[in-house]
Hints:
By secondary structure, the chain is an alpha+beta fold. The protein is built from 3 helices and 5 strands. A 5-stranded mixed sheet has the order 2-1-5-3-4. Helix 1 (10-16) runs antiparallel to helix 3 (44-50).
Amino acid sequence: MAALTILYFAWVREAIGRDEEKVERPETGTSIAELIARLATRGDGYAQALGDPEKLRAALDQKFVPLDTIIGEAKELAIFPPVTGG
C-alpha cells in the first residue's frame, strides 16, 4: 500500500481530533478536493472541518497548491484554514 500522510492544522485539527493520519493514496487522477469530500463523510468532526472546502487551503509535499490539484505520487498533504499575516 502506498500511503499518503494527511496533516491537519488549527481548527481543522481540533474538529477532527487528530493532527495527522495515514491513508491509502487515492487512485490516479484524484484531486485534493475529491479526497477532502470523501474524508468529510467519515463522521461529525470530519464533516465539520472539511464540509466547506472554500474555507480550506492545502499544501502537497510542502508546497501550497489549489484544491483542484491532482494528488498523484505525493507523500504528504496538509489541510489548514487560510492564514493571515500581520
